[in-house]
Amino acid sequence: MPAAHKRAFMDIAGFPGVVGVIDGTHVRIIAPSEDEAVFVNRKNFHSINVQIVFNAACKILDIVAKWPGSTHDARMLSESGIRQLFERRYVPANCHLLGESGYPCKPWLLTPYLQPRQGPQRNYNR
């Protein structure tokens, strides 16, 4: 399965070794009666922050929908099963996820340069 995912991402963007993309998305909810403040996200509405990993065909590979809206994406990742799978090497070492700049860069999680230099760093971000 990882080989097919890697091939698909390579075909899309020429990015080697990528098997999925990770991101968080906010699902709007009615304000809860308990711990209401922790469900208010940075856009100032009540939500559940949902972590999703998907492949090049936009099929969901992993989803966690339990975090209050104020929870940062990096915190969700740090306590997730997907992190454990990669760090305990259940996923082959040459497989990577792509994430946005809110995630920490790890050997298995590729994130953009915040201030890329001309050349390879800009090409990588593009």
From TrEMBL:
Residues 22-118 form the DDE Tnp4 domain. It is found in: Nucleus. The keyword Metal-binding applies. Its cofactor is a divalent metal cation. GO terms for cellular component: nucleus. It comes from the Eukaryota. Keywords: Hydrolase, Metal-binding, Nuclease, Nucleus. GO terms for molecular function: hydrolase activity; metal ion binding; nuclease activity. InterPro entries: HARBI1-like, HARBI1_dom. Belongs to the HARBI1 family. This is DDE Tnp4 domain-containing protein. It comes from Gasterosteus aculeatus aculeatus. The lineage of its organism: Eukaryota, Metazoa, Chordata, Craniata, Vertebrata.
